[in-house]
Design a protein that fits this description.
heterodimer, A: 322 residues, mainly alpha, 14 helices, B: 299 residues, 12 helices, 70% helix, elongated
Chain lengths: 322, 299
């Protein structure tokens, strides 16, 4: 177990280190020399070249690239990601405010996807090759195939513009507070994002359940005279859940990708919208912060998936990888 | 369909060698009704983007300032957009671009994945370890976000889009090919061929490629669906196919305005339905192909 964890942690460390080098390279090739930019060519009087050189020295830009990298990394580890070009606020500060929006959206979507996708997948597996199964498979393929932004446009058209039940965009009404107000704004974007994720969850739940149902120990359980409910509930479900936990965790980064699009459509103040705004404003510090956040999210989710797997499946705890 | 076979859980699944699978696969595919429907839809869709420009001769980029946002009429069967361009002509032109981007990007990703997978599976050792770790890492990052970031730094263009999708969407193809190559490499017949003096290139060409073609087709189909979705999402966000060229995705970009969404459905419903229908059809074909190629998949 320890060896397994250490190896996983080491791989994560390598990935993050590689990402940080990549980010640093991006930072280097970005247009514009910060020292040049800090000294205004119009208002500066005197020997400008010398002043730029002095400023470069102050900023440490005359140091070898490797030294610069480690300095930059040190700042990064202390949470100093620089300042936004457009608002002047600290990148870390902008990101923390936006993070809560994204977490709220992703959390609700994940809940919907799990509560809808997994039970439907299990029922489809139990009623294999019946109308229920075919309908469920079709709907899940629909969820995978129809782009969520088109579903979102349809959703806004029907539920917000035509029926007027739900608001079209935003996270709260102006000055509005309270749970119900927030919930009204959350329902549409979270359901649409959750529907997109429920598709793959349903498929995994179905195939995982089918695989377990075909195994010998279930035949044994049935031959012992256990009822169908006991066989399914106590023996099949528990084993079918093992691969699902991993899949659920590994899908979180792609849920994040979906959130970028949904946030844009619903003017949801989250990380994805922040990144898209930063792209159009060429706000590179914010963008780099976003990239770093994505890298950390991906690495953490992979670690969580491995951990969950190790906890649920004792074979991994005892003898390395199954 | 009721082929009972021992399924070993490891990656050493033997490719079917005994029965030449071609005929059987076609029959299994045809039995998959939705897959056949999907294939028909795709063929019609492809033909439409090729043939319709001969009938609808309106220039998709022709701007008419006197007739913008007009509802469908006999002159403009699907109305006009905010710049007075004919929506039907743009839908057809956009279809060409969207389908082409999907096909080329997916083909690129498949070729990259096949090459890396074959090299990893054939040589093993540290080559395999390196490629496998790289595959894990690339796979764990959502392609949409990676491509968004690439476009943010490089700037949107058709070439960037195709290259970026191809460069980051190959891991699934790589994994499939790696597994098949490894099990092939372990066979005595291949050891024999090496003994006869065949080099790696010859083995890859004569033995690996024929083995992986069928399973790779399944992966490639899924990649086409993914690439079309990626193009649509990126163009929708304004980071894909740059204007004035039409693509199904960037035609939807305008629908982000609520007034267009509410009162001008002819602007956003057709391209949205086109994307949904195409991707659904490709996925149906993919499902059918998977069952046709590998009868072991539980259905």
């Amino acid at each position: 177990m320890i060896a397994f964890l250490v190896r996983r942690l080491m791989i994560s460390g390598v990935v993050l280190a590689a990402m940080s080098i990549l980010l640093f390279v991006l930072l280097q090739v970005m247009p514009g020399d910060p020292a040049e930019m800090m000294i205004d060519p119009f208002s500066f009087a005197g020997n400008r070249e010398e002043a730029v050189a002095r400023r470069r020295e102050q900023l440490g830009l005359d140091q070898p690239v490797v030294v610069q990298y480690f300095r930059w990394l040190g700042e990064l580890l202390q949470g100093n990601l620089g300042y936004s070009f457009s608002s002047g606020r600290a990148v870390s500060e902008v990101m923390t405010t936006r993070l809560s929006g994204t977490i709220r959206l992703m959390g609700a979507s994940m809940l919907i996807a799990v509560l809808v996708g997994i039970p439907v997948g299990i029922v489809a597996a139990l009623r294999r090759n019946t109308a229920v199964d075919y309908t469920a498979s079709f709907v899940s393929l629909l969820a995978i195939s129809v782009p969520s932004f088109f579903v979102a446009l349809l959703g806004i058209y029907v539920f917000a513009l035509t029926l007027g039940w739900l608001p079209t965009a935003g996270m709260n009404s102006p000055g509005g507070t309270g749970l119900w107000d927030s919930l009204r704004y959350l329902i549409l974007p979270a359901s649409i994002l959750g529907f997109a994720l429920a598709g793959p969850y349903m498929r995994y739940a179905r195939s995982s359940m089918l695989e377990v149902l075909g195994q010998d120990f279930l035949v044994t359980a049935r031959s012992k005279g256990l009822s169908r409910l006991q066989v399914v509930g106590r023996h099949a479900l528990r084993n079918a859940m093992i691969p699902l936990v991993t899949v659920a965790a590994i899908q979180i980064p792609s849920l994040f990708a979906g959130a970028v699009v949904i946030e844009q459509i619903f003017a949801w103040p989250g990380m994805g919208r922040m990144a898209l705004e930063a792209i159009s404003a060429r706000d590179y510090p914010i963008l780099l912060g976003f990239v770093m956040a994505v890298a950390i999210l991906v690495v953490v989710c992979n670690l969580l998936a491995d951990l969950a797997y190790a906890i649920i499946d004792p074979r991994i705890r005892i003898g390395g990888r199954a | 369909m009721t082929v009972v076979q021992e399924v070993t859980p490891s990656a050493t699944q033997q490719p079917e060698m005994a029965v030449p699978p071609g005929r059987l696969a076609v029959r299994r595919f045809m039995r998959h009704r939705l897959a056949v429907v999907g294939l028909v839809v795709l063929v019609l869709m492809g033909l439409a983007t090729l043939v319709l420009p001969l009938i609808v001769t309106t220039d998709p980029n022709a701007v008419d300032p006197t007739a913008f946002r007009r509802p469908p009429s006999s002159e403009h069967p699907l109305g006009t957009d905010s710049a007075g361009r004919d929506v039907l002509a743009r839908l057809i032109a956009g279809g060409q671009i969207s389908l082409l981007v999907g096909l080329i990007a997916a083909f690129g990703a498949t070729v990259i994945g096949m090459t890396l997978g074959a090299v990893a599976g054939y040589f093993g050792g540290w080559v395999d370890a390196t490629i496998s770790r790289l595959t894990d890492v690339v796979l764990s990052f959502p392609t949409l976000i990676v491509v968004i970031i690439v476009v943010a730094f490089v700037g949107p263009s058709l070439t960037t889009l195709v290259l970026a999708i191809a460069l980051f969407d190959w891991p699934t193809a790589c994994r499939v090919v790696r597994g098949l190559t490894m099990s092939l490499r372990a066979q005595d017949s291949i050891t024999g061929v090496i003994g006869l003096g065949a080099g790696p290139l010859r083995i890859l060409r004569k033995h690996v490629v024929p083995t992986v073609v069928a399973p790779l087709t399944v992966v490639a189909t899924i990649l086409v669906a993914q690439a079309i979705m990626l193009e649509a999402a990126l163009s929708f966000l304004g980071l894909g196919v740059p204007p004035p060229s039409a693509s199904w995705g960037n035609m939807l970009n305008e629908a982000q305005s609520l007034s267009i969404l509410e009162s001008m459905p002819w602007l956003w419903l057709p391209p949205g339905l086109a994307i949904a229908l195409t991707v659904l059809a490709v996925n149906f074909v993919g499902d059918g192909l998977r069952d046709a190629v590998d009868p072991r998949t539980t259905r």
